[in-house]
């Protein structure tokens, strides 16, 4: 285990299909809350689970996404027969949520949400939102948006909306210990534009041909495919700029977290950059 290995894993978290680096500013989901969990085993195993809570109007739900990274992940979800590093949870009872929301706004007679089996009160009072630092886009009794309600409720009941240990360990071996938890950090979204040009069948044929000719230095097909897909993405000029400026290894946060993991010491995390993961810094999220 080295810091370089960890950063390389994070830099190459986008596989060209359904694995990617967590996107706080996701255009389909209003950001509500975040948390970062770091895990370390007695051996060389490590894992990171990043929680992103957001309101997705198209799904009609507030969704908690757990994004997994590491060298020992297991039991990942699959989509279209391919693994994805994201596991989604609905903390609010789906029927109850839809009974309280009309379109994308809070119904005037809505009283509570049922969150993990517990009733949490909903507010229709402007001052409650202002006191929580939430300036309503427009105020009428039936014009409070679902994301504004969500941000208030989450600020009042944060633990109900965060992943439980059972949920976090869904794709992480149980012998790993949680060594660091951050509710805020400095973050850059890192989303490369994906446009693979080589089919999977062609990729496999190319691997077999080169393996027979050169041996490829013992490279596995998975590593070969990752390298090819990565190069395809970097062939795009915009991607090269994103790679240079936004990849995890390019800035302090993940460099420090890599140090924490290698040293098995949370005191190695001493950031100098101001945190920016609060939803107020991602006002473009959910705006597509």
Task: Give descriptors for this structure.
single chain; 288 residues; alpha+beta; five-stranded antiparallel beta sheet; two-stranded antiparallel ribbon; 10 helices; 32% helix; 21% strand
- The share of residues in extended strands comes to 15-25%
Mean pLDDT: 93
Distance between the termini: 40 Å
What spatial form do the alpha-carbon principal axes imply?
A: globular
- Write out the strand line-up for the largest beta sheet, numbering strands in chain order: 6-3-2-1-11
The biggest beta sheet reads: 5 strands, antiparallel
Number of helices: 10
Query: What is the tally of beta strands?
Result: 11
Measured on Cα atoms, how large is the radius of gyration?
A: 21 Å
- Give unreliable regions as ranges: none
Topology order in helix (H) and strand (E) letters: HEEEEEEHEEEEHHHHEHHHH
Fraction of helical residues = 25-40%
Structural class: alpha+beta
Which oligomerization state do the chains in this entry correspond to? single chain
């Amino acid at each position: 285990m080295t810091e370089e290995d960890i950063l390389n894993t994070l830099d190459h978290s986008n596989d060209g299909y359904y694995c990617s680096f967590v996107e706080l500013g996701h255009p389909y989901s209003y950001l509500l809350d975040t948390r970062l969990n770091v895990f370390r085993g007695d051996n060389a195993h490590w894992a990171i689970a990043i929680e992103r809570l957001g309101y997705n109007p198209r799904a009609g739900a507030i969704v908690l996404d757990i994004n997994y990274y590491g060298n020992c992940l297991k039991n990942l979800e699959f989509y279209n027969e391919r693994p994805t590093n994201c596991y989604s949870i609905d903390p609010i009872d789906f029927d109850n949520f839809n009974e309280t929301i009309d379109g994308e706004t809070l119904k005037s007679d809505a009283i509570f949400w049922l969150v993990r089996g517990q009733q949490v009160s909903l507010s229709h009072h402007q001052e409650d939102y202002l006191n929580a630092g939430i300036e309503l886009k427009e105020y009428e009794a039936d014009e409070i948006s679902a994301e504004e309600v969500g941000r208030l409720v989450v600020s009042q009941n944060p633990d109900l909306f965060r992943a439980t240990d059972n949920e976090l360990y869904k794709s992480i071996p149980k012998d790993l210990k949680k060594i660091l938890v951050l509710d805020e950090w400095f973050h850059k979204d890192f989303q490369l534009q994906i446009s693979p040009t080589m089919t999977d069948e062609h990729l496999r044929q190319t691997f077999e041909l080169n393996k027979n000719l050169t041996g490829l230095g013992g490279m596995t097909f998975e590593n070969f495919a990752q390298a090819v897909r990565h190069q395809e993405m970097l062939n795009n000029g915009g991607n090269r700029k994103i790679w240079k400026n936004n990849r995890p290894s390019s800035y302090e946060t993940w460099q420090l977290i890599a140090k924490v993991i290698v040293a098995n010491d949370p005191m190695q995390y001493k950031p100098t950059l101001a945190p920016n993961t609060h939803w107020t810094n991602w006002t473009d999220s959910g705006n597509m």
